[in-house]
Design goal:
The chain is an all-alpha fold and 299 residues long. It contains 14 helices and no strands.
Length: 299
């Protein structure tokens, strides 16, 4: 009987944790949500997630409810697509596309309601948020109008990182709470971008930085460029984690190095991911490992 009581309490605690993490970080709430989806199955996950969104709406936490719904939708769709044995990129693409369509539809309704003054409202909100971090504003000269123009790509990046974190941490969350998973763990070090991302990156880079590009086209190109850089960053991380596995780096050092790479060397990791498309670093590392194994067995 005690186990039957603990089981729903664990689920309740995980949903509360997911809401809190979503409110505080925006992306880390995806990890407990994925653990719940893999444990609960399809329909029960959707029922409880929708119920959680309704509760948030009843408390008038509308922005949190909207974002929690989108993260829950992203995580849930990804789990459904995993059953179809799709590539990691395709799973991510479709899982991010649907909540993004939901966000843009809600945004269109809001614009219709507010009227032509909506750009000023958004810029004022961005300026208000920037005023809370004056040191950032002084160091890198953040411009509210430029940030506002890049909001579409920032929203997409949030969903991408939510999905990535859910894949990265959900197994550990499941173990902590003693929940069973119905799907196999994903091999994130197998993540590879398709050709279209490479060419999108090259064209968007040209559109964002070449002189004479129309303003509206430069804005669109910058948004595409931001998303491509993040996607290549994930591929760069896949290369680095493959290298860690080859060198048998301990998890403490992995956490340390990954923290440094994410916070200080983001662009460098993205460049590694971009170069991996052309150089095939992971294939070379696999051959290196095979060569090392043969030498060990010969001895």
């Amino acid at each position: 009987m005690l186990d039957s009581i603990r089981h729903p309490l664990k689920i309740f605690a995980l949903y509360v944790w997911a809401v809190v993490l979503t409110a505080l970080t925006g992306v880390f709430g995806a990890a407990p949500l994925r653990a719940l989806r893999l444990h609960l199955g399809g329909w029960l996950y959707w029922v409880i997630t929708v119920g959680s969104v309704v509760v948030l709406l009843l408390f008038h936490w509308i922005p949190l409810a909207a974002f929690f719904a989108c993260v829950g939708l992203t995580v849930g769709l990804a789990a459904e697509l995993e059953k179809k044995r799709m590539t990691l990129f395709n799973i991510g693409f479709w899982s991010v596309l649907f909540p993004l369509a939901f966000i843009f539809a809600a945004f269109a309704i809001w614009i219709e309601k507010i009227g032509p003054g909506w750009p000023k409202i958004i810029i004022q909100q961005v300026e208000t948020q920037l005023s809370l971090v004056p040191r950032w504003n002084e160091l890198i000269k953040l411009n509210a109008q430029e940030i506002t123009q890049q909001i579409p790509s920032l929203v997409i990046i949030l969903f991408i990182f939510s999905l990535f974190i859910s894949w990265l941490l959900s197994d550990r969350v499941s173990k902590i709470f003693g929940l069973k998973s119905g799907l196999e763990s994903l091999r994130l070090n197998h993540f590879t971008v398709p050709d279209i991302v490479v060419w999108t990156f090259l064209f968007s880079f040209a559109g964002a930085f070449l002189k004479g590009t129309p303003g509206w086209l430069a804005i669109i190109a910058t948004n595409f460029l931001n998303v491509c850089i993040v996607i290549f960053f994930l591929q760069g991380l896949a290369v680095i984690t493959t290298f860690f596995a080859l060198m048998r780096v301990g998890w403490i050092w992995r956490v340390f190095f990954l923290t440094v790479l994410v916070t200080q060397l983001f662009i460098l990791v993205s460049l590694i991911g971009f170069a991996d498309y052309w150089m095939g670093f992971r294939v070379r590392l696999a051959r290196k490992k095979l060569s090392m194994d043969r030498k060990i067995f010969k001895k």
